[in-house]
Batch of 3 targets.
Target 1
Amino acid sequence: MFKVHPARSFIFLALAGCFLCSQFLGEALAQCPTPDKIQGNVKKLFPNIEIVKITPAEAKGLCQVQVKLGTQNRILYTDATGDYFLAGNLVEAKSGRNLTMEATQILNRIPPEELRQLEPLTGLTLGQSGKVVYFVTDPQCPYCKQAEVILKKMAEKGEITVRFLFYPLPSHKGAKEQCVAFLCDKKGLSDWEKGYKSDNQCPDGVKKVEDTIAWLSKKGIGSTPTFIFPDGIFHSGLMPEEALRQRLGLPPAGGKPEMKKTSQIRK
């Protein structure tokens, strides 16, 4: 009877597994059209985007098309023929996961070396311990005020450090001037909460606000509130406390009602 050494048997099984995986991946990729095949159709529908790559989507029969719009990565979906396109969110019914949003967030993740560039742009800091969350806010944004209540509570418990980034929206008259005055007069949290205003528009304050707007806009952040997490992934829109805690790997607070996820967009 032919005998196989256990170590050789393991190697054989591993190689067989790799072969089967490569075969499966090859078949999956073969079901998706090549970038060259869909380039013409994409340009007709979306003339300003560039195709990066195409991979099988989590939903059977769909292919995920990663595209570049300016400096931002976006996702489209197509079928095996490349004749049909879907621009929208792909949601897994069972879990409620927004697969498109998750994939887009990962593609647009801010690298650690660039996150450090936000430190000098910070306009206000809450807390001195825990994970650092950058909070993009506007003094006249009502959803930001709701988020601030949650963040303040978590910071007071020593769970997080919150660094405010001032991003006044053009639709809010006087918001930019409020941000500049706050910085120039070196005010604190209580003044921010009261909607502090003054005529002080010092050059350093103006530059800091404008530099913050430019940096965030370059990363595709155009609405408030936006949360930038330690891993570089950012989320635009109001998040309930439990969602924030889960995202940060913190234990549940328990029994808190969820708030509608919404935001205000810079126009």
Target 2
Amino acid sequence: MKKKLQIALFFIILSVFISSCFNAGGRNTEVYFSPNIKKHLMAGIKNARESIDIAIYVFTDRDIAELLNKKAKEGVKIRVLFGETSDEYSSSVDEYLTTAIYKKRDGIHRFESDGIMHDKFAIVDNRILITGSYNWTYSANAKNNENLIIIKNNDSVIKRYEKEFSRLWKRGRVIKTYIVKGEINFNNINDVKKCKGKYVTGIGTVRNVGFSKRSGTYFLNFGERRGGFTIVIFKRTASSYINNRGSIFNLKGKTVRCYGKIKYYKKYGYEIILNDYKKLEIVND
């Protein structure tokens, strides 16, 4: 009986010791696994009162972007460092984030030549660290196997991340915005080419509407054949358009006006990725 009591006492003391390692002085560590770990990330962001520093390789989730915009409006200082990737879509929310948010792109590496900035972490109010394998994308939240770790009030760990963020931020490249005045002709590929990397308002007649059943993506084609200009509407934005304005297929043959950033992909050509259905309107019916 005495030996059993000693064993029981040992495990009680051990559990108290382990708990103290994580919670002493208010310290706490939370671990989450996919699917649906975004809610824990967003809960951490919602608690921000003063600052949020973010280093993220791929960031396309507009729910998170909207929350950051809201926190910036509340007066929270936010800095976002995006990774340098093979295509600008992998950080497409940079054009959706409010101008009150400071934005840079990795200035240390050049994609596929000397490595990448592959970090995924956020520091909230200098006391909460959010990190893990989780890129801030819809796929990472709903499809992939990912992990998320939230560490609170662990000064020694958080200070190391702050130091690393400062190093990356110092060498980051400011994301500049170039806006073309007037309207360009989407049906004239030479007009489009001149505006690569710039924000434009354009007008043109939709020659054809393509659709991918696999991804739920629509393609508004303005050229007579492959190699013309395309407006890409991913599933989330497409759903908003359909719910508010009707079938996207009805746009075939219509003249439309759209605002967005002209991007070039070697595989696909010149495109605007539509992030807000309200930025696409029918000029004539």
Target 3
Amino acid sequence: MMNDPLSIPNGALVVANDIVYTIDERQILDHVSITINNSEIVTLIGPNGSGKTTLIRIMLGLLQPLGGTVKQKPHLQIGYVPQRLQIEPSLPLSVGRFLKFGVPKGPNRQKGRRATVLAEVGMETMYDASIHSLSGGELQRVMLARALLRDPELLVLDEPMQGVDITGQNEIYDLIARIRDARQCGIVMVSHDLHIVMASTDRVICLNHHVCCEGKPETVARDPAFETIFGKQAAARLAIYQHNHDHTHDSHGHTVPNDQNISDQTPVELSGTQSGETPHGR
């Protein structure tokens, strides 16, 4: 239940405490407690069916837990990028109109505002393009832009790399880190796919119906619980390192110099964690 938001700790956006959730007597979440703070990036990982999306929906107030409490910062503004989005193929829909339908009436629906958030995600030239013509990576950027129209204090991304190739994933990870730095919002990313772990995340939470372990990526990789779930190979290859980029890339892969060097963190591939799956995209 949502409970006493004024008692939330300073700097916290959402606090979930001792969450319990079952479906047909099957335990989905077993006394799960997590806190999401302002200006931090949290990556929630775990195998399929581990309860990640259910936990997110409970934290957003879309599901009621059977036990435990959820507290949100008062008047918390949330931007949500869902795991899947079904768009009727026969519906003629431009990127600009798609953004317009994603927010309530008000100044954020104005064309200038929509164009601004498209530029923020590197899609400024695609305003009039058909939503059906976009690649996987382009569509994810547009969905991210739609979430940003709400000026979120908390940005929630459920499986944001579905349908995106490896190069596109790296670029989107860099983009998400820049958004956090520019907007100082909290970001939660959900994933079951350990091909790539976001090294610039501040905290990784490993969920398998309960919180198995959490901490910085390099700390989680050494936790026996992580190895139990994902295997020795995945744990051994979670090598985190940093380097500086003097450029980024736009949605078409073209080099875009930075105004100044930005310390980015490089996602590291984790092999052997899926049964031959490879992300697809154009």
